[in-house]
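From the shared-data thread, chain only:
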Amino acid sequence: MKRNVTASLIVMVHLLALFIHGNAHLHLHIDTQRWQSAFIAIVIFVGPVLAMALLWTRLHKAGAALMALTMAGAFAFGVINHFLIPGSDNALELHLGQSWKSLFVISAIGLGLIEAGGIVWGLLEFRNTKPLS
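Structure, as tokens:
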């Protein structure tokens, strides 16, 4: 039970950071391509929520696996788009000062940290959970 609460907290904090980051995107007029929007909706938003729901059922091991996989996908997407690929979505290219720019950078870093924690939690939980028999 305590493990499920931890995972749920990770997912809820992730959703909060995602909401903040999405608002920064809107205020800074940083658009995403259609495929990016689909990836964000399915993998970064719905995936962890579904994983959290599964963790509270008999499919706990599947939930842990989905948590690790979706958080890994979200982490890779964020690192690539916010720190590696040049462009308006790159947090390192924004000149800080305006509140939304600062919030964009802080939330991009925060998302990466939360997602890294979600990956570790999901992998450890998957390893420590017995399969259904």
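The chain has a mean pLDDT of 93.
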